[in-house]
Batch of 2 targets.
Target 1
Amino acid sequence: MNTSAIAVSGLRKAYGDKVVLDGIDFDVPAGSVYSLLGPNGAGKTTTVNILATLMTADAGLVQVAGHDVVTGTKGVRSAIGVTGQFAAVDELLSGRENLQMMADLKRVRSGDKVISGLLERFDLVESAQKLVSTYSGGMRRKLDLAMTLVGNPEIIFLDEPTTGLDPRSRRTMWQIVRDLVADGTTIFLTTQYLDEADELADRIAVLSDGRIAAEGTSDELKRLIPGGHVRLRFTDPAAYRHAASALREEAAKDDETLSLRIPSDGTQRELRSILDWLDSVDIEADELTVHTPDLDDVFLSLTERTTGTTGTTVSHSNSQEAIAK
Ligand SMILES: Nc1ncnc2c1ncn2[C@@H]1O[C@H](COP(=O)(O)OP(=O)(O)OP(=O)(O)O)[C@@H](O)[C@H]1O
């Protein structure tokens, strides 16, 4: 599908003199899942708020469902559903009443049927008559998403949808997202769980220092990291210090976990050379693990400056598909 559900260019936003979005561009194809990642405070919620017309940008062009967020606010609002940190759930109503309120607000036909279907889909039938104030965090999240689905919005913003959910509820939520996409819905997802983005997103953008640091499919982003690493862990601090001092320049040290990370592509030849080197400097680690790149590595590398984490440096030149900006 080639049409854009969301098109953003030159988006800027500052709070006072604090620049949060410093000119970001991205495009979300209709019927896909697009995930925005970034460290705490990177501006993910700010982006969602602007796209969902809950906040105005300082500059830039933003089109959602073909409507400009400034001049076509009404059109945008009728095409989207928003769930997450600004949930519309009313604690003093029951689950069913909340859904009813949403159905009335959106003037949904056959509201009762739609509501019963949603309660069933989200496994909320038994608690439908109970006040939301008695719901667990997970139940509230499910109700929040169920309310978002009333009226079948074509684009859904999911802001950290599975935070606080148990593993089973998380998987239920993932399946719901997949079903929605299979029906043609576009999902804009922010999450702090990289495995969630890996699992669900067609494309991922990493926000860092007010800019999109890299953008692509999960595989494309992983290819930005030159190989994985071998992790050596020690239990004896003296052995760790000895190994750290003998370490090659490009390896990273973690004093807290007494572990060393040596860049490696994980091939037999590389592993042999690392083992030979360990023998030659008389180092015996208590644990040796081979690690191939995952989204955690990508995230740590791309957001290194913001989070202050020591990670592998990303090579920006070795991928044709992913764009590291
Ligand atoms: N209304 C506001 N006024 C002033 N500063 C704000 C306001 N809203 C957000 N900020 C600041 O802007 C930055 C981005 O916030 P935002 O909530 O968009 O980040 P985020 O990526 O969603 O973070 P998190 O992962 O912690 O939810 C933060 O430094 C935050 O403190």
Note: Residues 306-321 have pLDDT under 50 and may be disordered.
Target 2
Amino acid sequence: MEKITVLGAGSWGTALAMVLANNNHDCLLWSHRENQATEINLDHTNKKYLPDTVLPINLKATSNFETAIKHADTIVIAVPTKAIRDVCQNMKEYLNGKKLFVHVSKGIEPDSFKRISEMIVDELPSSNVEAIVVLSGPSHAEEVVLNHPTTITAASEDMKAAKKIQDLFMNNSFRVYTNDDVIGVEIGAALKNVIALAAGIVDGLGYGDNAKAALITRGLAEITRLGISLGAQPYTFSGLTGMGDLIATCTSIHSRNWRAGNMLGKGASLEKVLDEIGMVVEGVRTTKAAYQLAKKQQVDMPITEALYSVLFESISPKEAVDILMHRTKKHELEDYKTF
Ligand SMILES: NC(=O)C1=CN([C@@H]2O[C@H](COP(=O)(O)OP(=O)(O)OC[C@H]3O[C@@H](n4cnc5c(N)ncnc54)[C@H](OP(=O)(O)O)[C@@H]3O)[C@@H](O)[C@H]2O)C=CC1
Ligand SMILES: O=C(CO)COP(=O)(O)O
């Protein structure tokens, strides 16, 4: 039995804490809302985020950040991308010695273009960081809490740390692989949300399966191009955190990104969509970051550009699809000629 803290009691933090508690670890879940921590401790529910789930009784919660950080030497950070820096900054005063950090967030920071692990490195003193592991893959919280078979990847530059996280999370319904391509895993995780928003849009427009298959396939091509330009290994993008998560997110009603796109495709405004979903839709902010990053890297990312125009330049979803369909003629495999 290992002591582990999970920071962030939204859908994913709660589902992962449940996996760890079911694996008989001493898992403490931190919520920044006292009433939510009380609900988890007394009612064993988290109704806002996982309405139909009964949490294991050995899963404890706290809203005391100091208690949460001091509880364990393994800390899982499960807050949205935009909260990563704040959470890391707040934790510094309670860190004493080295801890193993796991992050599970899927995004890139606009303007700095930093991946999550880079933000963690920016914010935490290296003397307090044993290693950073990213846990990512096709894994809707709603299915994980039902113990439906799920596969995921623990990626780190430190394979010993990745294997430790594999051991802590793995069980009969939660299968964990390892990978050392942190760039590829984080880029695939962040960018699949952009393509999922676009997939939701084509479904909302009523364009059907051909259009969605095109988006997933050409989406993977542009994600791979960007990833390679940043130093990722090409084959990571055919794996769980690339193609795997694209399929899960672009085809599922569980996906907040797909649902947001679907509502946009049906004509709703971005403001109304985000208000109605009420949970993080990472793809919106990541579209901005990816659009900027593609320009910096001089990588062609037509789907990301089209989505950027819809989200931030008031182009209609239908016009954006028309623009994509009228691009100059290309060879399908010209992206792959370099590997
Ligand atoms: N849901 C899923 O199935 C999966 C999600 N992910 C990724 O996990 C990350 C978290 O997503 P998810 O749990 O789904 O998001 P949710 O929107 O479900 O929950 C986010 C949680 O983070 C809390 N939070 C927000 N800002 C802060 C802050 N500054 N300090 C402390 N807590 C904060 C929210 O609190 P409040 O209630 O107050 O808003 C909420 O509890 C995202 O990057 C997502 O892409 C990855 C795999 C699967
Ligand atoms: O990352 C996810 C599944 O792997 C969850 O996707 P959403 O954030 O779109 O719900």
Note: The mean pLDDT is 96.
